UniProtKB/TrEMBL annotation:
Keywords: Signal. It holds the Pfam family 2OG-FeII_Oxy. Residues 1-23 form the signal peptide. This is Isopenicillin N synthase-like Fe(2+) 2OG dioxygenase domain-containing protein. The keyword Signal applies. InterPro entries: IPNS-like_FE2OG_OXY, IPNS-like_sf. Residues 225-316 form the Isopenicillin N synthase-like Fe(2+) 2OG dioxygenase domain. It comes from the Eukaryota. It comes from Physocladia obscura.
Amino acid sequence: MAGSTLSLPVIGLEVFLADPTSAEAIVSCKAVAAALQEHGALSIRDPRVSEADNGAFVDLMEAYFSQEASTKALDERPEVGYQVGSTPAFTEIPRCAADDECVALVERLLPDDKPAPFDTADAKERFFWRVGTPPPPGLATQFLSLHAVPVVPPAFADVWQNQMDAWGAKLLAAVRVVAEMLAVGLGLPQDAIAGRTDHAPHLLAPTGSDLSGAANARVGRVLAGFHTDLNLLTIHGKSRFPGLNIWDAQNHKLRAKIPDGCLLVQAGKQLEYLTAGHIKAGFHEVVVTDDTLTAIAKQTEAGRPLWRISSTLFFHCDSDSTLEPLPIFATPESFARFPPLLAGTQVQHELGLINLSAKA
Ligand SMILES: *[C@@H]1O[C@H](CO)[C@@H](O)[C@H](O)[C@H]1NC(C)=O
Ligand SMILES: [Fe+2]
């Protein structure tokens, strides 16, 4: 079990939004870079995003995931690696399971820092909805499956696009500013990282985990096994059910607590690539804990659905852009460890390793 609860640094975006060049803004930018380096994660407060916005989106997703499995199955698109529409439970396999180096790392962890078992497919379900601006015509992507036609669930046809786009746009705007602040915090031009994301296949990626019934509401049940995210940065609002554990750069396991009205941002593999490991992709897992059971009791009393929703967005680099160490991290050694690679190729390789597409 996680020993300690971590209150991640909370960084407000308002100072930077008001004037990105102010001395106060630069201090915040350095704090963003330091938090990602130390914890692989941070909490942010964006004055443009409210807890009510997150709540409205979580309500929609509770209704979506509460549908019959056979109804949700019509929204599956395995032929494009599930990159749009629904991914059923017990499909995605935790990334660590496919990685000998990761398995060896887990063996070295202290008992209190060990993750829950990660050798079977995740109990969570997910829905992928692409947000942002597609590659411009004439500059066509060579990664068509990452830019596939969106899926609109029939029962939600009248509201789906508006609500998904509304929450997606808020998270996208927030995380883009974090990418700008990170670049400034690293001593780079504001657009050095965010400028690589303008035509990327960003995915609004809410997960839903069924917590109804004694078998599902069992302490230790793994909803999402130990892994890092394959993308650049991940952002999400607060879930109604606790259970997220994160590992800091020293590989200590911590329970993540997100203050009301805040968003959690985590570093992914593409950021590790661009910074040549200066910022590491943050390990995390979602497991049912005593606190989850307390929330289940509370939601049951309130007559709410027992689905744990995470209101996640995966922020990506442009598929046809090259992942390689940024100039300040460029050395012969870093290029040997992180050789130039198209972001779309990296994504497809990772999707194979987590059982979302045929191994590339
Ligand atoms: C991999 O995904 C497929 C569905 O695409 C699923 O049927 C299969 O059980 C998954 N593999 C494992 C080992 O869980
Ligand atoms: Fe994740």
